[in-house]
Amino acid sequence: MGTFVQDVRFGIRMLAKNRGFTAVAVLTLALGIGANTAIFSAVNALLLNPYHFPDATRLVSVIAWHISGKNSGAGYRVFLDWREQNAVFEEMAIVGWAGSYTLTGQGEVQRIVGARTTWGFFRVLGIRPTLGRFPTAEEDKPGAPAVAVLSYPAWQQRFGGRPDILGQTMTLDAQSYTIIGVMPQGFTYPGIRTCEFYTALQEDPANSRMQHQYDVVARLKPDLSLERAQADMTTIAQCLERQYPETNTGWRVTVEPLRNALARDASRPVWLLSVAVGFVLLLACVNVASLLMARASGRGREIAVRASLGASRTRLIRQMLTESVLLSIAGGVLGLVFARWLMDVLAGAAPEDLALDATLRLDPTVLCFTLVLSFLTGIVFGLAPALYGSKTDLNSAIKGDANVAGRGRNRQHLLSTLIVGEAALSLILLVGAGLLVKDLFVLLHLDTGLRVEHVLTFALDLPWARYSTPQRRVGFYADLLARLRAMPGVDGAAGVDTLPMTGSYSGGPLVIEDRPKPADWMDMETQYNSSTPGYFRALGIPILHGRDFDEHDSATSLPVAIVNDAFARRFFPQEDPLGHRVKGMGDWHTIVGVVASYKHQQPMQAPVPMLYVPHAQSPAYGLWITLRGTGDPAKLVASTRDVVRSLDRDVPLLKVRTMRQVVADSLSQPRLITSLVAGFGLFAVVLAAIGIYGVTAYSVSQRTHEMGIRFALGAAYSDVLGLVLRRGAGLVCVGVALGVPLALGLSRFMRSYLYGIAPRDVSVFAGVPIVLLAVALAASYLPARRAAKVDPIVALRYE
Questions:
Q1: Nearest-CA neighbor of 622 among 496, 508, 745?
Q2: Do the beta carbons of residue 373 and residue 36 sit within 8 Å?
Q3: CA atoms within 13 A on the CB side of 410
Q4: Phi, psi of 138 (to 5 degrees)
Q5: Is 352 helix (H, G, I), strand (E, B) or coil?
Q6: Which residues contact 720 (CB under 8 A, 6 or more apart)?
Q7: Rounded distance, CA 474 to CA 616, Å?
Q8: Which end of the chain has fewer CB atoms surrounding its CB within 10 Å, N or C?
Q9: How far apart (Å, rounded) are the C-alpha atoms in residues 317 and 386?
């Protein structure tokens, strides 16, 4: 222990003495370790330990899915059958979903997020309220008094944490909710983690069996296996298929651990980022190892003196490894700061249903990972320099030739090998980043079928109690759109139920008049939407045939519909769809128009059949408003807010964005992954430049005598300059030659992440080596220029 403490003290003095080297090494390691810490925190939160509920291993997700792959989710009626007939679960519950509510009566009108779940949801999770209770089965029935359980932050921030909050009311969407409890502190659940309150679902058991929109969570009975639960639910699904063939044909059930249900969508991007930061850390290790190798050349006399005084080679290696570990631990400490920043970036940019803003934290597991990673990193990058640095020629070193150990061929070869490896690793990471960047560029410039320029969008959601009748909803939106169209700088205004590129989906079965019903209604599934007159013009969607909706399409007129050409091609391939009647959304509608198809959910997804009905004939509480202006749409926000406020001060504007921003936001996940990997690729280029510069500068310093001889024999400035540049470029070329085959092999791994380009895109594989070669020449230029300016007289006296 005494010698260990001595090694630590000496190592700290040596690192403090060489502040420039220490700063570069610690910063390099901090970026590598910090990136790995941040991504590991995401792995820990999403894949390893996503739920902190009692006996979380007994929590399962029960998933209903159709064999066609077109739909998934359990309807309320099916859920009730499952809960009644199963023999393997202690409790089942519908997860529900989060929605926005207008809070009034507490100062300024605000929009807050709340979630509706069945009464057994919290029992399934095994949690207890901090205060009060959770909803009961009676409160989950339609028509029961509305109750609410506050989240812990809402209780603290909105109500000051008062213990007398139970029994008080709050007004949401003009309806009174009685507060019956407070959630435990720190409660999170993916998809509903931002909620300020939770209430009962109160769905009507008489609703159609064709609905399939819910996620279901359950808790296994003790000592029952997942296989037993799967067999039981499969039997129930088969019974329901025989009992209700029209709605349950082709539907299957899968029971899987709740952790897997979350990891299904998160695992692919998380593992991609894990591979990327792994390469970054390897590059950091190679870079610092090359710097240590170069630095070891200046420690020849020190090592020789220590050896002559009796230090064994093992003792010398331990001393050097102690310094390496000190560097890596310092890098790990600084890396925690970088990791914290990167975690904030991940939490802010990740999809809301991942709940990263509430689950990403530097907990003991992550801190232990960082400590172990820092220690191992110090050993990895410090071992080779320690082995080579501990070798020395005592006689030559003590006589004053301190650099003799640094001139060995083995050390030169090792440094060259490190640079070759760094170039190969950089190329692989840059190829991956290049593929993602080009793919994102292609996606952002795909033709979606929409004219997004000069379009402002925002959402409105009318309070249920105040606008309970269809007439009031239709009247509000008609008056609003008329006032918006009259605003200066507005070229058109319209409303639509589900706005393109927001990920919204509303689909169901379709029946065509005078055609037999299919055996499976999923064969006739289509997406539904309702819109006001002028919607297609506002988004630049051409009407190919027939007409648009107009003011005559009211609740008392003939129900009509407009379809897109994808719908027409699928269901009317050999005939004109105009005049045909189709039944969707509950009524028979006569098709009066055909519009061009556009990409509704994401730019990379092909257009799907869509059926539009007039909003006046299917009035929703919430609508997306599209406002086409003649200039910058952002300038219309203030006047638009004033118009809405003049109609109803309790209806705020929600999700105000330009349509161009909506399209960009639909690519938030690939954009986040691309930005991070591109950032890591840029870091790789910087590391490669530092490594090449360091090794080239070291090589030049060791060849000063040689340069003097060359100049004495008549070598020109350009000859020496070219000699040094060729060495740096040559090492990179060898690295590229090794890295390209590896990158071609790993490009198969990238196939599932690319949509717009091939995984072996020629421009990327040709461009990355050129970038690396340019970096090598730039990094080698300064040492080469210094070598070319050597004074021959001074150089010949160098030794």
A1: 496
A2: yes
A3: 9
A4: -65, -35
A5: helix
A6: 707, 710, 711, 784, 787, 788, 790
A7: 6
A8: N
A9: 5
Expressed in angstroms, the distance from the first to the final Cα of the chain is 42
**Placement of tokens 């399962």 in the chain:** 60
Percent of the chain past pLDDT 70, that is, above it, reads: 87
Calpha distance 250→258 (Å, rounded): 24
Q: What is the CA radius of gyration of the chain?
A: 34
Give the number of other CB atoms < 10 A from CB of residue 301: 19
Q: What is the pLDDT of residue 639?
A: 92
Query: 657-698 pLDDT, tens per residue?
Result: 999 988 888 888 788 888 888 888 888 888 888 777 777 776
The whole-angstrom separation of Cα 422 and Cα 341 is: 26
- AA identity, residue 550: D
Confidence of residue 705 (pLDDT cuts 50, 70, 90): low
For the residues 356-385, what does the mean pLDDT come to?
82
Q: CA triplet 233, 118, 526: central angle to 5 degrees? A: 70
User: Taking Cα atoms as reference points, which of 185, 221, 203, 206 lies closest to residue 96?
Assistant: 203
Integer Cα distance of 156 and 179 in angstroms: 14
What's the whole-number mean pLDDT along residues 701-723? 71
Whole-number Å distance between alpha carbons of 304 and 394? 5
Query: How many CA atoms does the CB half-sphere of 740 hold within 13 Å?
Result: 15
- Residue 126, SS3? coil
Max alpha carbon distance in the chain (Å)? 107
Q: Which residue has the tokens 């019974």?
A: 239
State residue 633 phi and psi, 5-degree precision.
Answer: -65, -25
- Are 33 and 373 a contacting pair, CB within 8 Å? yes
Q: What is the mean pLDDT of the chain?
A: 83
Q: C-alpha distances in angstroms, 522 versus 251, 509, 526?
A: 10, 6, 9
Pair 578, 602: CB distance under 8 Å = no
Q: What is the pLDDT of residues 514-566, one digit of tens each?
A: 887 766 666 677 888 999 999 999 999 999 999 999 989 988 899 999 999 99
DSSP-derived 3-state class of residue 686: helix
Q: How far is Cα 526 from Cα 508, in angstroms, rounded to an integer?
A: 6
Place of tokens 């009259």: 486
Cβ proximity of 386 and 317 under 8 Å: yes
Structure tokens, 22: 């220490």
Distance separating alpha carbons of residues 334 and 328, to the nearest angstrom: 10
Q: Where are the beta strands (DSSP E) in 616-711?
A: 622-629, 654-658
What are 669's two structure tokens? Answer: 């996940």
Question: Tokens standing for 139?
Answer: 């409160």
